[in-house]
Design brief:
The structure holds two protein chains of two kinds. By secondary structure, chain A is an alpha/beta fold. Chain A has 15 helices and seven strands. Chain A starts with a helix and ends in an 11-residue tail after the last helix. Chain B has eleven helices and no strands. The chains are: A alpha/beta, B mainly alpha.
């Protein structure tokens, strides 16, 4: 036994876990969160921080692509676990018990390291070869827009692009959450770029020469775009494309100054983010100027849910998310513990204390107040409404459960909010993703088999 | 001198370990649970080992050089800042402008975090980077008034002179407001909670979002080293340096630094993250006048004593 094996065994006992929920199975997601918490395994913040990827349910085609892209970004040693829709807590325990030995296996670690590196360099090639592909690499990026994009770009992705394989530059794989790169030279791979032996560096400069590959932030200025054919009209669009392409325009910001606009999909895999939700935002600095929300695999047929999550549990879950996003991990964990106890029907005596802690914090109030755009209730008000409901239920008073906003209502509420405020708003609004999924009864085109 | 060069990194390393263990223990308590001493001591080691054997990853079109420059300069800045802190009687480098040197090193961290946020070519990573620049603009003014008040009372920018001036009365008594502001800015300069927005969960880890393996380890270590350096600097500036009964000077410095770290860890778990879109106003409208008044009061005291 060498040192690496010993270290692997030592570290595999406390892996960092990235949980990907599947819309329509909120109960399973909560089961996984609880099991992971009880084992003392921290939840990862991002793919870079992940050792174990757990998919809580059978992913539909759109989510499947996101998960595959996520997996490519996770550094070795790593383990991927996909749970069945009807996994019971006992199944879950069995599965989780197998994770540390798998993580600790030096052979598998080496294999995964090679696989991750290979995926990385292949990805770099793909990226260089086909800009249209690039949304797939972004964790959290939906891929549903592929065909829309193809429709716009002359020739479409895949045509004329796949045959080009650039030289291998530095093996680089794509960035993580919300990462965006600027290879969106849609459909403009006309002859001169199809030389098979471009080095990565040459490729880079070539893009620059096209004037649309302007640096690092998707700041694509379109002054030179004229020569590139039809694919470029979306440089002039204000709205983000459904595919989550990152393009930047210049537009007036809220102070009337010209500022870059970055189009970016947020979700579906971010800490404390609603399952399956993707919000396409236009960002200026960290102000969201426009947002549209959608749900992954919303058109898919879903098997009937095994159990619904009660409103009481959801209120505590939302409280835990808000506290976690507000950067208050201790009380957030306490809220989660209470949430899990409530689900099992155990007594939740500490509830009043937690509510008091949250209410008493003047600093939290200062951070949550005035975070709404327009005249609507701000995060502090919405949180207070939840606290009142939580207290009333604890006292045994019947409570009317309010309508949960659908994903469609989110966009208007987020416009004008700053990034941090938008995260808080989404957490406190707790949009009804599962309802949105369940409402679509039209059967989808059949899920892809792996 | 040569022993001190060796001693400083070792002492800093031990302090970082202490900080991490303390953080786990206090964090578990604030989450309503309890972490045993063994867990608190072992888990930082495990976290380190995990990152040592973890694969490093790069992102597409990343600027690896800038990212590395950021990570390395964070560590270097923390060590150089600590070099002017007297560990016992004397610091590693007893500069005549020690206070200014410390301040300059701490501002290097702004560039470091910005580069680390910029390097990976990721939006959330960049958000973390510019959050820290905004934070720097907010905390730096009151912070400078706070540390310059200590220098004013001692009539010198040399750290050892400031310690000597506290042989009778610790400056924390003379200038409590400056001390409190310094504690806040110590947390803010190391983007330590409650000023941890640059690496917050809502941005998936912010500036550190794309780092894995050794990169992540060094960045996290640099951040904690900077916090330790800031905590250690509070001792000569406000807490009388090595002055104290019975124990030797180095022991007093160690104890007082540990006490400041305890306060900083408690702060982190006691309060939610402070965002700069709310804090900048408080910082400039409340803390800047407060520290100016504090400096004025101290100046009057110095004049009354016949100093300057």
């Amino acid at each position: 036994m060498d040192l690496t094996a010993a270290l692997l065994r030592f570290t595999a006992r406390v892996p960092h876990v990235l949980i990907v929920g599947v819309p329509g199975h909120p109960d399973l997601h909560l089961d996984v969160e609880e099991a992971v918490r009880l084992r003392g395994w921290p939840e990862a913040t991002a793919p870079a921080d992940t050792d174990v990827l757990i998919v809580a349910g059978r992913a539909g085609p759109e989510l499947r692509e996101v998960v595959d892209a996520l997996w490519r970004q996770i550094p070795a040693p790593r383990v991927r676990v996909e749970l069945a829709d009807d996994a019971t807590p006992a199944d879950l325990e069995d599965t989780l018990a197998t994770i540390p030995p798998r993580l600790a296996d030096p052979q598998q670690a080496r294999h995964e390291a090679a696989a991750a590196a290979a995926a990385a360099s292949e990805l770099a090639d793909d990226q260089a070869a086909d800009g249209a592909e690039h949304e797939h690499e972004h964790s959290g990026h939906d891929d549903g827009g592929h065909d829309q994009h193809g429709g716009r770009a002359a020739g479409g992705p895949g045509e004329g692009h796949d045959e080009r394989r650039d030289g291998h530059g530095e093996p680089a794989h794509d960035g993580g959450l919300g990462d965006h790169t600027d290879h969106d030279h849609h459909g403009d791979h006309t002859g001169n770029q199809q030389t098979p032996d471009n080095s990565g560096v040459a490729d880079e400069s070539e893009h620059s020469a096209h004037g649309e590959h302007n640096g690092r932030h998707g700041e694509h200025h379109d002054e030179n775009a004229g020569g590139h054919g039809g694919g470029h009209d979306h440089h002039h669009m204000d709205m983000p494309l459904p595919g989550g392409l990152s393009m930047a325009d210049v537009a007036d910001d809220r102070d009337g100054l010209a500022l870059d606009v970055l189009h970016l999909p947020l979700g579906p895999v971010l800490p404390q983010w609603p399952t399956g939700l993707v919000v396409d935002v236009a960002l200026q600095g960290d102000v969201i100027t426009a947002a549209t929300a959608r749900v992954l695999d919303a058109g898919e047929a879903h098997p009937p849910d095994r159990a619904q999550v009660s409103a009481a549990v959801r209120d505590l879950d939302a409280l835990a998310r808000i506290l976690a996003i507000a950067g208050w991990p201790g009380p957030a964990t306490r809220a989660r513990v209470l949430r899990d106890r409530l689900r099992r029907g155990e007594p939740v005596a500490d509830l009043a204390r937690l509510v008091r802690t949250v209410r008493r914090s003047k600093l939290l109030g200062l951070m949550l107040r005035g975070t709404a755009s327009g005249a609507s209730a701000d995060v502090a008000d919405l949180l207070e409404q939840r606290l009142v409901r939580i207290e009333a239920r604890a006292a045994g008073t019947p409570v009317d459960d309010p309508e949960r906003p659908g994903p469609a209502d989110l966009g208007a509420r987020l416009a004008g909010a700053e990034f941090a405020a938008a995260r808080l708003l989404i957490a406190v609004l707790d949009p009804d993703i599962d309802g949105a999924v369940a409402a679509t009864t039209t059967p989808g085109p059949g899920e892809e088999q792996r | 001198m040569s022993a001190a060069i060796l001693l400083l990194p070792v002492a800093m390393g031990v302090a970082v370990w202490f900080l991490a263990a303390l953080d786990i223990a206090v964090g578990a308590r604030s989450a309503g649970g309890r972490a045993g001493v063994r867990a608190a001591v072992v888990e930082p080691v495990r976290a380190t080992a995990r990152l040592v054997i973890g694969q490093r990853r790069t992102t597409l079109a990343a600027d690896g050089l800038l990212r590395w420059a950021g990570i390395v300069s964070l560590i270097v800045a923390a060590m150089l800042a600590a070099a002017v802190v007297p560990l016992g009687e004397r610091p590693l480098a007893d500069l005549s402008v020690g206070v200014v040197w410390f301040n300059a090193m701490e501002v290097v961290a702004w560039a470091a975090v910005w580069l680390v946020g910029w390097g990976p070519n990721g939006a959330l990573s960049l958000v973390g980077g510019y959050r820290f620049v905004a934070q720097g603009l907010s905390y730096e003014l009151p912070h400078m008034f706070a540390i310059i008040t200590a220098a004013l009372a001692a009539g010198s920018l040399r750290i050892t002179d400031i310690v000597d001036a506290q042989a009778g009365l610790w400056f924390v008594v003379l200038m409590p407001a400056a001390f409190v502001v310094y504690l806040l800015s110590a947390a803010a300069m190391a983007f330590w909670g409650p000023f941890d927005a640059p690496v917050a969960r809502d941005t998936a880890g912010g500036a550190a979002a794309e780092l894995s393996g050794v990169d992540r380890l060094l960045f996290a270590a640099g951040r904690r080293l900077l916090l330790v350096a800031a905590a250690a600097m509070a001792v000569p500036l406000f807490l009388g340096g090595g002055h104290g009964p019975w124990l030797p000077a180095w022991a007093w410095v160690g104890l007082k630094t540990a006490a400041v770290l305890v306060v900083l860890v408690w702060l982190r778990h006691r309060f939610p993250t402070i965002r700069m879109d709310r804090w900048a106003e408080i910082s400039w409208v409340v803390l800047v006048p407060l520290t100016i008044v504090q400096a004025l009061v101290v100046a009057l005291v110095v004049l009354a004593r016949g100093g300057l």
